[in-house]
Amino acid sequence: MNREQISRIAHANHPIKAPLDDDSVRGLLEHGVSEPDARVLDLGYGGGEWLLRALSTSPRSRAEGVDISEEALAQAREAASSRGVQERLVLHHQAAADFVSPHPFDLVLSVGATHAFGGLLPTLAAARKHLAPGGRVLVGDAFWEREPSPEAVEMLGDYTDLATTLDRVTADGWTPVHGHVSTRRELDDYEWACWGSVAAWALDHPDDPDSSQALSTAATRRSEWLRSYRDSFGFLCLVLRQTPTARA
Ligand SMILES: C[S@@+](CC[C@H](N)C(=O)[O-])C[C@H]1O[C@@H](n2cnc3c(N)ncnc32)[C@H](O)[C@@H]1O
């Protein structure tokens, strides 16, 4: 069983691949989609859930997504057809950093995919290139809620605390107009949804050749979460507008 297969099972009951509940996603999209006919781009769209929700709530909007995963492409295509929004959705199968578009976007999203660009600020630099005048960026990334253990840094990467993260973003020329810090409940619900789904799949498919691998992956990942990063990991989403440059 490869990573993508595990990921598909892990997210079966949590289609947003980040620690956010439905109300938080709705609130973030309401602040991000500023016009009824907005053009929306998602860099690293996963199952396409952010785009599908934006298209469903704004019936005149159009959306595009970029992801390197074939599994993501197939899943998002299928979900778009079943929700009847496929005519307004274009999916690109490629590295997000290489994506070029003939037109700009009113909202550029990238949640849980900053590793595709090498971090938060490079993600914002990429988003800026795709942004229409007056457009918004909705970005989601980790921060350290508490001092991380060396294992947590090794496993998840190097982040800063919340205030420092905001300082870096604002110094880069962005003004936050909305934000959401994932709650303890959202963080825990996400991990339980992922590793509980994988464990349940293994128990429901005892004769599948991948069953024992899935069960041990679920146990390992649950233990890594509880022992290595549950106390230090935080997740932040920001809706950003570009800060006007001061006139001389
Ligand atoms: C944690 S998932 C987040 C998906 C989605 N944004 C969400 O919140 O549901 C990260 C996604 O980034 C994609 N990804 C990773 N590296 C990428 C790259 N270089 N270019 C495009 N997509 C990439 C992965 O395939 C995966 O679908």
From TrEMBL:
Q: Which CDD domains match?
A: AdoMet_MTases (cd02440)
The molecular function GO annotations come to: methyltransferase activity
All copies of the Methyltransferase domain together span: 40-135
Gene Ontology BP terms: methylation
Q: Keywords of this protein's UniProt record, alphabetized?
A: Methyltransferase, Transferase
The protein's name is Class I SAM-dependent methyltransferase
